[in-house]
Specification:
The complex is a heterodimer of chains A (about 90) and B (about 900). Chain A is an all-alpha fold. Chain A has 3 helices and no strands. The longest helix of chain A is centred in the last third of the chain and has 37 residues. Chain A starts with 9 loop residues before the first helix and ends with a helix. With about 900 residues, chain B is mainly alpha-helical. Chain B has a 5-stranded mixed beta sheet with strand order 2-4-5-7-6. Chains A and B meet through α1 and α2 of A and α5, α6, α11, α13 and α15 of B. Chain A: Keywords: Membrane, Transmembrane, Transmembrane helix.
């Protein structure tokens, strides 16, 4: 890939890894939602199941919120870094 | 509560909705779209997902099947956790192509095929009609609850017309605010704002009821959990409540598909989105809304079962529970929430389906029937499209109402929500495949969607309306799950299989590239047509957008090209943009066909595509070539700069040299002149005269020496020095040099340290020149060595491969490291010039001689005094090769 840089500076690298996290999150969430029902359906069908699923759900909402905020900040940081090359060199 | 009061509240609420929609539309028309575009409004408008089916039905569903009802909300939540890379991309691509509906998206991706869009529209119509009927039914049922409870209620009989009234009212609202204009982007600020308000009402109503149930009826959350446990332990419920993994998975899959493919969801999620930025908020806020809407469902279901008679319909617990507890205001609020849920779903669904029906069914048929000539002035396409939408909205509403009237019973309708979900889910493989896989093609999409449609009809839709029997399924398998998985798997396999063996046409491949890579569609030079066609295009755009907007758009485009007037050049980029803007009003397939017809269509061929690739490749190569040239230029500039610096330095050096030389010549000249003046004096004694003449002679000699040195240096520097190469013994040369130098400061008794055996080394060189260097170096040592007991060390050794190294070292204080580089320069005198008495040319001449001899002379630091190293090559260079400095 001659057009892409082989290595990224810190800001872009950080943003890419957060992007990876954003890709993994739905898969993780799907596993957490599906696996217990296949594994121990009788234990997650009643009150305990309600606690499990609503707790998981609230956690997911929080995780997405934090992730999106981090991604927005990382994008802003990347934009800043690419605007001023001096800063980018400092960040190396 | 009197039924009239309910009716009045309801009417008041409807008037409020009309007012809000009207105000928002007016604000948008004036350009006040900032708060209308707020991500929160967008998020709230997504809540159109929670229709009356979920508002009322979720509690019924939960009381029958326990936690399974959550799947309907968990699917969308999972999709939204992937909002950053998934939904954002979908929205960006769809906005880029001005997609108007899910059918339009599929059609635009697969080569702007209208037939494909028409099939997707068919699924949408079949799935939506019963779904709308379900909403009408929920409104009628909720009215009934109040009517039957009210002391002077109209009774069940008087409510037969409820469905009709609601349908008619919603049709008026939808037509008023949904078909006001035919903008380039199908956004409806009025509708979206009204829906956002309804979303708030829904949420407040449901949460209020939930809080009342948990803290008013039960004794807090722990007590509620206890009650849920007890309900779950009830054998009557336990069987139904036990989660079935296969069904759980299939339901989550289908509801995740539904959030992307349901016409109303696509409308609010994609079409009404100004850009993908709002998903940053919606990504967590919409799951949070769903969380809040479902959090209280199970408590309400359990409490309803405990407190209400067994005959009560669980689907209406939401209303009957507060009513039975005498909480009339709460019941009214809940009623308004349910009413909001039903109406917002119907309005958006009607807009979305009507857009599809008009763009993909009515307009293409009309255009095909009319065969309009290109410049037909009287033809008003805009009016037709808007009227087609209005008719389609009326038709959709009417179909929903007819279906509602015909089906009558509640049982048949209750499952319609899921049936609609599974129907639209059949579009998902083609949609995802089209967005992620460039190899997906139209035939594959036909086969996949077609197979899905047929299987869904036979296995899910028709059984749900009582036609045909259930599938013969293996024991222990849920028939619905089997049907869903079977239809989706076969759909996907057909789509992928046919795509693999097919070869897409060029338009499709261009679109595929644009969709999968989320880049602007590539333009091709073949799309360029004659400039005389701009006017018919303007006429066509006017027929779609109306005179003023079309003129404004063409003028802006012309100005962007640097032209005055209204007719831009038909560049490929202008045509692509125009086509996409038209697609925003009438769908991509129709826009493509119209532009082709008016501007004289040129069918793209595979060869053209390859040429596009070639052009892209050429552009890339050109860029690379330019970059290389740029680098070359930078390099040359750097070299030039260096050369310039060198020249500047040389010029400074030359000036310094001239001024120094003038100074050096002037000093002896001054004394010569002064003493000549004195000699003129006749009173001088003979002795004085003799002394002064001696001074004049010495100064003249010094001048001559200086001029000789300069001449020598100039000859050496210009490379014109003549060499007399011969064999010489270094021992003899050093001895001669020591003898010659001993005349300098003869009062200093130097101890000479020599290693005689090693000195007997024969070298091939110009002996006289080498002797000159040796004398100079040794004389310097004699002059400047400031030790009390001066010692001069001379060491000679042969070099590998011939040549020799001569080190001349004294034991004085040496030369500061900072000034070592200066000593070989002309006129460099480190000590007091008066004391040394030379002009400072000696070492400069030595360096030039050694360079001419092919060797070098350098200062050796760290030897305990001034130390010079003279390096001799095996033989002097031939004249042509030039002198190359040597060092050890």
């Amino acid at each position: 890939m001659p057009d892409r840089p082989l290595f990224l500076e810190r800001a872009s690298f950080h943003r890419r890894r957060l992007g990876d996290a954003a890709r993994v999150l739905p898969i993780l969430a799907a596993l957490l939602v599906l696996v217990p029902v296949w594994w121990i359906p009788s234990q997650v069908s009643y009150a305990g199941g309600a606690v499990w699923i609503f707790g998981l759900w609230a956690g997911l909402i929080l995780a997405v919120r934090l992730l999106h905020r981090a991604l927005l900040q990382a994008e802003a940081a990347t934009a800043r870094a690419s605007e001023t090359p001096e800063e980018r060199r400092d960040a190396l | 509560m009197p039924f009239e009061a309910l009716l009045a509240t309801c009417l008041g609420y409807v008037v409020l909705m009309f007012g809000v929609a009207y105000a928002a539309d007016r604000a948008a028309a004036r350009g006040h779209v900032r708060w209308l575009d707020h991500p929160l409004i967008y998020t709230l408008s997504l809540s159109v997902y929670c229709s009356a089916w979920t508002f009322y039905g979720a509690v019924g569903y939960a009381s029958r099947s326990g936690l399974e009802f959550l799947t309907i909300y968990l699917g969308p939540t999972l999709v939204f956790t992937g909002a950053w890379w998934g939904l954002r991309r979908l929205v960006r691509v769809a906005r880029m192509h001005h997609v108007t509906s899910v059918a339009d998206l599929i059609s635009a991706r697969f080569g702007k095929s209208n037939r494909l869009a028409a099939i997707v529209t068919l699924i949408a119509v079949i799935a939506s009609t019963p779904y709308i009927a379900l909403q009408l039914q929920s409104v009628r049922l909720s009215f009934e609850v109040f009517a039957l409870n009210a002391p002077n209620g109209a009774g069940r009989d008087g409510l037969g017309g409820t469905g009709l009234w609601v349908a008619a009212g919603l049709a008026v609202f939808t037509i008023l605010f949904g078909t006001r204009n035919l903008a380039a982007d199908e956004r409806h600020h009025g509708v979206v704002t009204a829906i956002a308000l309804e979303a708030v009402v829904k949420l407040v109503a449901f949460v209020a009821l939930g809080v009342f149930v948990i803290w008013g009826l039960a004794d807090g959350p722990l007590d509620m959990l206890d009650r849920i446990s007890r309900a779950g332990a009830d054998p009557e419920l336990a069987e139904g409540w036990l989660l079935k993994p296969d069904r759980w998975t299939a339901l989550i899959l289908v509801s995740a598909a539904a959030i992307l493919t349901l016409p109303r969801m696509f409308q609010v999620l994609v079409v009404e989105a100004a850009d993908e930025e709002r998903l940053h908020v919606a990504g967590w806020a919409f799951p949070a809304y769903l969380f809040a809407m479902s959090f209280f469902v199970l408590p309400i279901a359990v409490m309803g079962r405990e407190l209400l008679p067994a005959s009560a319909n669980p689907d209406l617990y939401v209303l009957t529970l507060p009513a039975a507890q005498g909480q009339n205001l709460l019941a009214l609020l809940v009623f308004l929430g349910g009413f909001s849920a039903a109406t917002s779903m119907v309005v958006v669904c009607a807009i979305a389906v009507a857009t599809m029906v008009s763009n993909h069914w009515l307009v293409p048929v009309w255009l095909a029937l009319r065969r309009i000539p290109a410049g037909d002035e009287a033809d008003d396409l805009r009016g037709f499209v808007l009227n087609a939408r209005r008719v389609a909205i009326l038709a959709v509403m009417a179909a929903g109402w007819v279906y509602h009237e015909a089906s009558g019973g509640t049982a048949a309708l209750a499952s319609m929500g899921l049936v609609a979900f599974t129907g639209m889910a059949q579009v998902l493989p083609a949609m995802l495949g089209g967005l992620m896989w460039r190899g997906a093609n139209r035939k594959g999409a036909y086969c996949g969607i077609g197979a899905g449609l047929v299987l869904w009809m036979t296995m899910i839709f028709l059984p749900s309306v009582g036609v045909g029997g259930d599938l013969p399924v293996p024991a222990g398998m849920d028939p619905w799950t089997l049907a869903v998985l079977l239809s989706l798997v076969l759909n996907t396999l057909a789509f992928i299989g046919v795509s693999i063996f097919g070869f897409p046409d060029p338009v499709e491949r261009l679109q595929g590239l644009s969709f999968v890579s989320a880049v602007e569609p590539i333009r091709h030079s073949r799309m360029m047509r004659g400039d005389d066609r701009a006017e018919p295009l303007l006429a066509m755009a006017r027929r779609v957008w109306g005179a003023d907007p079309a003129l404004r758009y063409f003028q802006a485009e012309a100005r962007a090209q640097g032209k005055s007037g209204y007719l831009p050049d038909l560049t490929p980029s202008f045509l692509t943009r125009l086509e996409r803007r038209l697609a925003g009003s009438i769908g991509s397939a129709t826009a493509h066909a119209m532009i082709d017809r008016v501007a004289g269509g040129v069918a793209l061929t595979v060869a053209d595509l390859l040429q596009v690739a070639d052009e892209a490749q050429r552009a890339k190569e050109e860029t690379q070539r330019l970059e290389a040239a740029q680098a070359e230029l930078t390099r040359t500039a750097r070299q030039l700069r260096e050369a310039n610096d060198k020249l500047t330095a040389l010029s400074v050096q030359k000036d310094a040299f001239l001024s120094q030389i003038s100074h050096e010549l002037r000093t002896p000249m001054t004394s010569v002149r002064a003493f000549s003046e004195i000699l003129k004096d006749p009173t001088l004694t003979e002795e004085e005269r003799g002394r002064f003449a001696g001074i004049i002679h010495a100064e003249a000699a010094r001048l001559t020496r200086l001029l000789d040195d300069l001449l020598d240096l100039s000859v050496l520097e210009s490379g014109r020095a003549q060499m007399t190469v011969g064999v010489a013994n270094l021992h003899d040369l050093i001895t001669r040099a020591l003898t010659a130098a001993s005349a300098t400061r003869p009062e200093r008794g130097f101890l000479i340290d020599r290693d005689l055996p090693t000195e007997h080394l024969g070298v091939i060189t110009d002996a006289d020149r080498l002797l000159q260097v040796l004398i100079n170096v040794i004389t310097n040592a004699r002059k400047y060595c400031d030790a009390d007991h001066p010692v001069l060390t001379i060491r000679v050794r042969g070099r590998e491969g011939g040549g020799a190294i001569i080190d001349v070292i004294d034991n004085g204080s040496g030369i500061d490291s900072g000034r070592q580089s200066l000593i070989f320069q002309k006129f460099a005198r480190l000590n007091d010039p008066a004391r040394a008495g030379g002009a400072g040319l000696g070492l400069a001449i030595c360096r030039e001689i050694m360079l001419t001899l092919g060797g070098g002379i350098s200062y050796l630091p760290g030897q305990g005094g001034a130390a010079f190293r003279i390096v001799l090559p095996p033989r002097p260079p031939t004249r042509a090769g030039g002198a190359e400095p040597l060092s050890d």
